[in-house]
Amino acid sequence: MDSITLPPPNSCAESSVPVIVHDDANSLSSPLVDPHFRRSHSSPSIFTDFCAPSSSAIDLQPIARPPPTALSFMKLAAGGVVLYVSVGVAVYAARHKSFEGRTTGSPVVDGLYFTIVSLCTIGYGDLVPGTRAAKLFACAFVLVGFGFIDVVLGGLLAHALDWQEEALLAAVDAGGRRALGRALFLVDVRKRRMRVRIKVALALAVVVACIAFGAAAARALEGLCWVDSFYLAVASVTTVGYGDYAFGTVKGRLFASVWLPVSTLAVARAFLYLTEMRVEKRNRRVAEWVLSRRMTAGDVMAADLDNDGSISKSEFVIYKLKEMGKISEKDVTLICNQFDKLDAGKVGKITLSDLKGTHL
To answer: Which helix (H) or strand (E) is 99 found in, with range?
Structure first.
């Protein structure tokens, strides 16, 4: 008999069917193997009891990654933004006489504007603390906001962009070949992500739209000319904030309280994508150089992990990945240590019997 046909898991009888592990002499000595049968060359080289309901049975499915916590993070980020803004508005409204500069007569609007300007690290200078207590509060408030804008708001924007990217990939998967052909210039299907240059183009388009929208609003709400409006918009989205022009009306400050966080984050994300594109190009050049250069005797000695005078295919792959900078020596050491823990018999192989009762 050349092979054994296993019954499906749901149709198993009470007695389990042994399955051949290896087609060699050593496998015949195992009590789990029937010596009257031999495994076919196309059957799997590992085995399990499909029918025995045991608590130590090995799960045949790979362990899935933990589910993403984007929703909980977005809730936490939104709550943090509301708390930060509420504290700033409350303190300013209660101590508005401790602040100097151009005011609108509405402590709530001025407090919201002061909080957003501090959060985005713009610092127009049109509304500043005037007493020692107000200055100490501003110092603490700015220091918290300086990290807050990057960690919380930046993470919130990243999760939103990741959600959009996943939605685009899902649409490509559902659309079939026709949708795939149209979206190849947008999505790298092999890497399951949007192409970096597309991200850069979209981010720059958002920046241009934010500047144009801000300039139009500054002209309409603050009565500035087009040049001054454009100047104020660019100085704002880049967080320069020279201070010679700022939002001074109630409507202008309410608009700025919404527009400034969105536009400054868009600019930061655009520069991040530009950096990512440069790093990706550099990594491609390094990979091409690593794969094109000749192997030397020194390379063989460095890639020979088991010191047997030769390198296997796996050793060659690991060495090339280390040269490309994709993995480090520490990563290899940690993986080898985990393999050694799983290899209970110290034979250089991991069997299913080694995995029973192991939680790694």
So the answer is: strand 99-101
| pLDDT single digits (tens) 318-345 | 888 888 888 888 888 888 888 888 887 7
Q: Is the pLDDT of residue 174 over 50?
A: yes
The rounded distance, in Å, linking the Cα atoms of 236 and 246 is: 9
Q: Which amino acid is at 96?
A: H
Determine if the pTM surpasses 0.85. Answer: no
Radius of gyration (C-alpha) of the chain in whole angstroms: 31
Q: Are 115 and 99 in contact (CB under 8 A)?
A: no
Q: How far is CA 218 from the centre of its chain?
A: 36
Which run of H or of E encompasses 194?
strand 193-194
- Smallest CA-to-CA distance from 245 within 118, 122, 112, 139 is with 122
Provide the H-helix boundaries in the chain: 25-28, 70-94, 107-119, 132-148, 154-183, 196-222, 226-237, 250-292, 297-303, 313-324, 329-342, 352-355
- For residue 203, give the amino acid letter: A
Q: Are 92 and 101 in contact (CB under 8 A)?
A: no
> Is 319:328 a contact under the CB 8 Å cutoff?
no
Element holding 188 (H helix, E strand)? strand 187-188
229-281 confidence digits (pLDDT tens):
999 999 999 988 888 999 999 999 999 999 998 888 888 878 877 877 788 78
Residue 287 pLDDT exceeds 80: yes
